[in-house]
Write a structure and sequence with these properties.
By secondary structure, the protein is α/β, with parallel strands linked by helices. It has 20 helices and 14 strands.
Amino acid sequence: MITIGHATKRCQLPRLRIEGYSSERKCLTRTLSISSGSSSTVSVNDLWDSGRGILNLLTNKQRDILVEQKKISKETLLLANRVGGVSLQHCATSPFLQEILTPLADSDKRAIADRAGSEDALDSTFSVVIAGEFNAGKSTLINALLGQKLLETGVLPTTDQITVLTSQGANNSVDDDDGIHDRLQSETIATTGHANAIRLHRIPNVPLLQDLTLIDTPGTNAVVNNHTQRTLKLLPSADLILFVTSADRPFPESEKQLLKSIQAYRKNIVVVINKMDVLDATGGDHGEVEKKKVANFVAENAADLLGARAIILPISAKDALTAKLIHGKEGESTKVWKRSNFSSLETFFVETLTEETKIQAKLLNPLGVAQGMLSECTQVLKIRKKELETDTATVQLLKSQMNSWKRDMEGDMERFQTDAKHILEEEMHRCETFVNAIGLFECYALFLSSDDSKLNAKWDDTKSIIVSSDIKNELLLVNRECSDAIASSARAQGQAVIEYLGKRPAAVGQNLIGSVTAASRFEDTRKDLSDKMCLAVNSVLSSYDAEKERLSVFQSMKNAAYISVGSNTVMLSFGILTALELVDVIPGLVSAFVFASVGFGITPFTHGKVTEDYEFIWKQREVKLKNAYEILCSKEIKRIHMRILDGVAPYTRYVETEEDAINSLNKECDQLSNSTQILINRILRL
């Protein structure tokens, strides 16, 4: 079973069975059996004037489907424009001659009318585009279908014109500057040419053209460069493509490439092998063996390119035209006509292309184009996503590295805060060290003496053991180290990010699409942070007076020494009085015990209290400085983090935006593809 060629698995036209070449008839013919239903009896007349055509035969359900089809086609085109880089974007939903047959180039009324007429006809008739290389006999084929030599033929590329052939109505006229121009005289072909290489033929009394329009394209692979482009621009809007190849050079590489480009539009394709007459002299029986080889060769290659077995019609348009021109209708009984096998092509048009088939194809073809566009959109987005993968990974790596750097900096800040804490804690325990270094009797000697030089020397000795210089200077030194470390790390990190990303710009092809701006060198970081940390130290140590705090400790300990000596003296007095029996034993002993407890207990108690108070003051200072450092360092690290990210924001913003756009467009492609396939299934079930 050989089916009409199509880029997808679905078949829109009835299948044809090719049973082979008839040996009894001694000529190249085919016996065709039609597997479709019976043809419609509705007649379509006066297409141009009455407005009746394929679309006017639609049922209400088919009209609803047509509305959905146009909506999908429009949305697909808009999506393709947004995706960009899609070669099928020119497949608009409007008739394909709208762009090239335009009154902007031809301003006269006749051109305007022809444009409007062509759009109406092509929208309501079944359009058959005849494509192939130059000198494949396309024009001769059309002349044979018409039974007259209307189009120019030749071995060289004759013209770059697009020729449209359609039926002529009864009352088609248009006003021009000279009055009424009647272009539809009976039995006369009305022909209009336009500046942008369009030739429109309105032909009367041709049943084939009643609801069908033929479009002859410029031959491809010609020396005229724009022939191929003009042909490719017509293909998306075709309802059926007759692909014409020549028997003397069947399916060269250029034709294979053209057929591949047609495949993208998911069109119905019939392959016509023309000029079979050139093989008549290649062997007996009019070269039938060679003709079979050519037909099989074309069939195999077409199947490989289209993904389905295509209808192959081997004909000789030249012989068919000769038979019609010489013998008229009686020519169909001549040997030349039978040898041309042209009846297989005419049978295909008359019996295979029923109204039901044409309507189905009319509804399905734009959806096939939409599927092609969506498929290409998906491929373009896939390529864009692939190109973006490295940049996406780079952005993720950048964020990960910046977070790691932030954690490392926070760890370094904790180390500097620990250094500052250690300085304050050493000062906090200074009083305890001082007290523990003085024995009880030495305490009495030092604090009861009127000379404080030894006491001061003891205090200074404690200081030299703990810190090498003034506390404030020690803290300021830590501040400088901290600010230097943060500034150096920030500069190194920022420079590393810029150098890395500078070598990896997001790019498509040769075009830079995303940039990296220079990050700050952080010259101001060191000074700003150091100044702020110095202010914090000054604020915390604003109540600190070394001399005053030293004298306060000394005074407390002196007072304790005086009380201790006085209490011990009273205790001894009561002891002596009791021993001399000057006082009662019990009261004397109790009094002695009380004063002894005070005398011996006041010193350690006072020392502990002085140490506790001293530590409390410095603990408060430590907490305040710790909180100030945490706030300052945390803010500075966050600020540096943001400055580095802001420096590469154009790059990261592009990558993230592009990734979101690709994901969104892919989602729209999937939704439209599903809607398109659902609508196709509905059409096939009608």
